Every structure is written in C-alpha cells, then in structure tokens.
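The following block was generated as part of the benchmark described in Methods. Ligand: adenosine monophosphate.
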Amino acid sequence: MDLIPVYPPLKSDLHSHTACSDGKLSPVEYIDYAVAREIRVLALTDHDNMNALEPVLKYVKDKDLPIRIIPGIELSTTWMEGTCPYQIHIVGLNCDPSNARLQEIIRINKEKRDYRVEVISAKLVKNGVDAKDLADYLSVYQQAGTFITRKHFADYLIKNHIVPDNSAAFDKYLTKGGLAYCKVEWGSIPEAVKVIKDAGGVPVLAHPMRYKELNKKTKYRDRLVDYYTEQGGVAIETAHPMMKSEEKKVARDYASSHDLYSSYGSDFHERNVPERAMGRDLWLAAPSKPIWEHDQIKDYFKQ
Ligand code: AMP
Ligand code: MN
Ligand code: MN
Ligand code: MN
C-alpha cells in the first residue's frame, strides 16, 4: 500500500493537547516545543475546552513565530449502540471559541467533569487513597482552571506507586468495572457535529482505530462511521504516529467509502512519548480527500 506524507511542503499536526486539559505543557511551552520541532500548522484540540487558545495566539503573535494555529477542540460524546454506551471523541477544527452554543457545551462538560472528579475521588478514598493528599494534588489543577480528565487520576496513582503504569490505572480503577469508575453521559454525536459546524468548524471523528471496545467488535466500529456520516460528519482521522499500515488502510477505506476528508494528528500530550510525538511519522494511506484541501482549512496551509 502507498503511504504518502501529510501535506509535504509544511510540517503539520492536527490533534494535540496542553495543560489546559491533560497535556503536560503550558500554552507557552507547547508552542516553544512545536516551533523547535519545526511544526508550521498546529491544531490545538484540548478536551472539552479552548482555554489555551488566547495565550497561545498571543504568544505566537508577540514573538512573531513561524507557526499557524488552528483553533480546535476535542469534544467528548456518548454513542449508544445496542445497550452499550461508548465514549467517542469528535475533534472540531477551526472553531470560533465565542460561539454561544459551543460555550454552553463547554460549560456543561466542565460540570460533568467536576462531578466526576468528586465521584472518582470518593471511590479512591474508599479504596485506601489518602483523602487530603489527593485533594491537595487536584486543587493545583482546580485552581488553574484545568479540565481534569481521568489521565490526571492515572498520573496520581502512578506517582504514588499504587499502579505501575497508565494502562494498569485505567484497567484497575478508571474504566468501566474499575474500582473508581464513574459513568458520564456526554452529549450526542449529532449535537457535537452540529455545534462544531455552527461554530464555523470542521468535525473530525477522532482516532477511529483506538476505541478498544470497538476494535473487538469491528461491525460496531463500521456502524459508528456510518452513524457519524449520516449525522453530518465531515472528516475522520486516518493517521497517528506508530499506527500500523493495515490500520491506516482500514481508516482510509472508511474515509473513501463514506466520502469523508482525511485528517491526522499525533494526539500529543507530553514530551518523550514516541507513539504520540508531535508532527512525526504522520503518513497517510493515500487519501482521496486530504483535509488540507478542505475549504475551511486550506488557508492555514497557504505558503
Ligand atoms: P477523559 O476524557 O477524562 O475520559 O480522559 C481521557 C484521557 O484518558 C485520554 O486522553 C486518554 O489518553 C486517557 N485514556 C482513556 N481511556 C484510556 C485507557 N483505556 N487506557 C489508557 N488511557 C486512557
Ligand atoms: Mn487526553
Ligand atoms: Mn481522544
Ligand atoms: Mn486527544
């Protein structure tokens, strides 16, 4: 199978996080890192918020840095299929952060996250975690206005040697059936698609090959792509670093059979994680409609 580099003239990455959600770098550190890696087009796509956008744009402008930022977001949604809820991420690229409905969804999702922080904390304390120590750890993020994710809890469990690594944290504590699991019902896929479009953005089905439960039931994964497309979805991610070429082919075929644009991104969260290294190894299985040709995106790639 032919693999082609993403828009070759400019290095780009269309999915990444800062410390405003579960990334590790502040907005300024994040830009310094991207510029050092010679990224020229970068989509900022924090979970359920766009708080990093203003400081990022200000820093780029003040320093006159050679990088264009696509204002984005990664919205959490819940997709019900049969009796099972699945958490599906919809990235929005080129969103206007002042859109009223988008702001409303951001507010609602923040409330859901705040509630979940309380439930997960209580369950961890029941399971022997020190209440004050955990509250002190979380309060640093709460005071900074961070959108706290399950990854913050995973980091806490690893730091305190309660679990050896991230996947153990999720398996034992944070996913369905785990000791500190808290169910959240996010908004629907059509609602996310609509609000992204209303805010002038392009909806992108994030990392379709990384939903563990759906990889076990590929028929459901097919249905997800069908449903997303029926509901007005425009693009789908077809590459991230370390993705196997067979997976890229499946994702590319989803894009072409559903007439979706192909997007891509590392899902960068922090330095030194090769499978999420910013801007690296983003080869696509030759797509029919690359996202850099989309009318609302192409100007970011102008030379
Ligand atoms: P949340 O949005 O709070 O559910 O947290 C999402 C973050 O948790 C994502 O950025 C993932 O990196 C991480 N995550 C979710 N599920 C898993 C899992 N099963 N194993 C490892 N990390 C996960
Ligand atoms: Mn994340
Ligand atoms: Mn995601
Ligand atoms: Mn992400």
